[in-house]
Design brief:
By secondary structure, this protein is of the alpha/beta class. The chain folds into two domains: about 220 residues, Rossmann fold (3-Layer(aba) Sandwich); about 60 residues, 2-Layer Sandwich (Alpha-Beta Plaits), CATH 3.30.70. The strands form three sheets. A six-stranded mixed β-sheet has the order 6-7-8-3-9-10, with helices on both faces. Strand 7, helix 6 and strand 8 form a beta-alpha-beta unit. Helix 3 runs parallel beside helix 5 and helix 4 packs antiparallel against helix 5.
Length: about 300
């Protein structure tokens, strides 16, 4: 069964085109990622799917309900966690959860088993004001509030932005457990490394979808040679490679630069020889397996 269907959706704010011809579908029980940088259109798309915004063009359904005509029904069956912490900071942890349960005509006790694994981690602080929680705990409370009415589908807009690495890992472990229980989850993130944790992903940039597939299938589309390069002075290295006639693409990736040549016959020795001739010192070159981020950068270039 298909949980979400999006057909040729556009959204504009005056002269600003936020989304252009967006189409995709999400199957029941799938963990589907919308991956892209800030300003790519992820939040606008989620606001349309959660009936907060109307599309300028096109149509979309959630669990068979139209996002415009059936917005009241969608709000009853969907859980939404916006990117910005939107709970009541002056209410305690427990009061926030009780409030959201009451809005949906349920109680904490009735659906406690559903949020137990998540909420039990913050329950020792149930009397603390939500605004005084750490970033990771705020996210766990927000997810508990989005889950308390037992939704069929979850929309999580950048749930791990600004959260420490340990909390990010714990949060994704929780999402995978929820997905394994049969809940459909759509999650947006600017972190490319989180893409590999999804069943399928849509790569989005400037309001357009660049690719949709399983993460490992997307990485297979990168067929060019790829090298990870670093030196004593990476800034000089970057400028040197940008001037190199055989450079296809060059981007910083952590302590390395990812270099792809224009020719398939290009050899590592050629690169080393060129860099030494330009005075680059302590050069290290390794063959690199492409990541989702490499594919994203490659797709961005091809769609310019």
């Amino acid at each position: 069964m298909t949980s979400v269907i999006v057909n040729n959706v556009d959204k504009s704010y005056g002269k600003v085109q936020a989304l252009t011809d967006i189409s995709f579908s999400v199957e029941k029980g799938e963990l589907f990622g919308i991956i892209g940088p800030d300003g790519a259109g992820k939040t606008t798309l989620f606001r349309i799917l959660t009936t907060v915004l109307k599309p300028s063009k096109g149509s979309a359904t959630v669990e068979g309900f139209d996002v415009v005509k059936d917005y009241k029904k969608i709000r009853q069956i969907a859980g939404y966690m916006p990117g910005r912490f939107s709970l009541y900071p002056d209410l305690s942890v427990q009061e926030n959860l009780e409030f959201f349960a009451t809005i949906f005509g349920t109680t904490i006790q009735e659906n406690y088993e559903l949020v137990k694994d998540i909420y039990s981690q913050i329950e020792p602080f149930k009397n603390r004001p939500a605004g005084k929680l750490s970033g990771g705990m705020k996210q766990k409370l927000a997810l508990s509030c989005a889950m308390i009415h037992k939704p069929d589908i979850l929309f999580l807009d950048e749930p791990t932005t600004g959260v420490d690495a340990v909390s990010r890992k714990e949060f994704w472990e929780m999402l995978i457990r929820l997905k394994n229980s049969g809940i459909t989850i759509l999650v947006s993130t600017p972190y490319m490394d989180e893409a590999s944790l999804c069943d399928r992903v849509a790569l989005i940039q400037n309001g357009r979808i660049l690719a949709i597939d399983k993460p490992d299938e997307i990485t297979k589309t990168f067929t060019k040679k790829l090298f990870a390069v670093k030196s004593e002075n990476n800034y000089k290295l970057l400028k040197t490679l940008q001037e190199y006639e055989k450079t296809g693409s060059i981007y910083p990736f952590g302590e390395y630069l990812h270099f792809s040549p224009v020719e398939d016959s290009f050899k590592e020795e050629e690169l080393m020889e060129y860099l030494k001739s330009k005075g680059c010192e302590a050069v290290e070159i390794n063959t690199q397996e492409p990541t989702i981020e490499d594919c994203f950068m490659n797709l961005m270039t091809s769609h310019e």
